[in-house]
Write a structure and sequence with these properties.
By secondary structure, this protein is of the alpha/beta class. It contains 13 helices and 15 strands. Strand 14 and strand 15 (391-398) form a beta hairpin.
Length: 402
Amino acid sequence: MTGMSGLCSLGNDWSTVQSRLVNGESGISAAPEFAEISGLRTRLLGRVRNFETVEGASRRNLRSMGRVSMLAAEATRISLESAGLTGDPIVSSGRTGIAYGSMSGSPPAIETYARQIGIHGSLHGITASSFVQLMSHTVVANLAQLFRCSGRVIPTGADTVSGTLAIGYAAESIRWGLQDVMIAGGSEEAHPLITAILDCHGLTASTGTETNTPRPFDRKRNGLVVAEGAATLILEEREHALNRGANILGEIAGFATRTNGGSFTNPDCGSIQELLRAAILDSQLSSDEIEAVSANASGIREDTVEAQAISALFGDQVAVYALKSQLGHALGGSGAMAAWIAFETMREGWIPPILHLETPDADCGDLDLVRHDREFREGGTVIIDLGIGGANTALVLLPQAS
């Protein structure tokens, strides 16, 4: 990996995000507008603030972009710059591909279609650009147009694991020699349509405030908080990167994806263990070489199942942290954001703390839960990403290519 960046509820640049993670500051805020929607219980949201547009994008480019694509495009612009690939012919040569995901197309465009056709029986106000914004692969389509990328395209509309699935498939594309460079990540925009999906499943926080919610692994956890954000990694074949003098920032060492084949919302402990074993096997590391686990834990009752799976495999020998305690759950963008933050913190040698963790749930097993930021020494970090429908993904990351 030679470039990376992200936009999240804690800030739009790494220095801001780092400071707020270390100081235990939350990116969650009140969403009083939710009170206007009958039946919507949650009143909290994680917003990306101070973001309006994509630097350097033309009006023509922006016409086809909803906010979900704009967040992804800005993160990608910064990542390409970080990788030293801005304007490089490799991007448009056919040897650079895109793997990117979100839960859906841009919700406001979906809302416009539904209202005009379903309620008013009219196409008034619907444009060709509206369709591009709402289509499920809107992010990869817009990224390809904006950055003139002509390689393989992998849209991963796989619920909340969209980002990690995209990164994993991108890594495989390079491993198999199908591409030299892959733009990979996930994005999500905040909108009541998106929040309602989780609210209908009874997963969102209907009590608590922005000062004490969400509470992963805590005995008093009361639900997740939906958020928005995006993160992009630039993955590159190692020799290709070295030959052009690129600075290698880290390595996607392992990837696995599994489905539990059971409940749509309740993860299965055995399938999570199998997922972790498969990702570690793919990395050619041993479980003893894993130092940290970035848990999916979002503050719902099913956190205990994930915790028991981690405990069964690692005991208390890995440091476990939960970024959603500060970021909220950015759904299709969450796993990519977790990967971005893991790479940044591993390079700097520290592990983020879990916010709002007061009394760990006894049912979470024997875990070393990170209560205060601590030193990261060496080894790998596992990213766990669990989705509605039983789609589960894990990545094994190393701070630098070996």
